[in-house]
Protein: Response regulator
Organism: Fulvivirga marina
Amino acid sequence: MKTVLVVDDFASIRKAIVDTLKRHGFNTVEATDGKDALDTLRSSEATIDLVLSDYNMPVMNGFQLLQAVKSDDELKHYPVVLLTSEKANDKKMMAKKAGLDAWVEKPYKIDNLINLLNYTIEKSKKNDSV
């Protein structure tokens, strides 16, 4: 079973995403912001397959989390998907340059999100085995 680290500062949004992912066969781990997510990635006993993060959060936002993950040799193999209401093209381009795997704008279609997550995890596993 695939495990997704869900990162969002709003508990209600985190819960909605977690519930959706669980209904579609994913395990989930939760973090309240980018710093919490980094701590979780570094210490987690669970095997995390993908980081699904909001962009706009206090303490450490999704872009800062992405930069921290992709610049850390121990963490850079984690695929990162930003799920956000942020629409600025310059932010999308910066995230892509920093190593982002996918950018999903809210509102989103659940089936599209699930397919994207599955595809991104599978692509990441193939790249790891090369």
Remarks:
- Helices lie at 11-23, 34-43, 62-70, 89-97, 110-129.
- The longest strand covers residues 3-7.
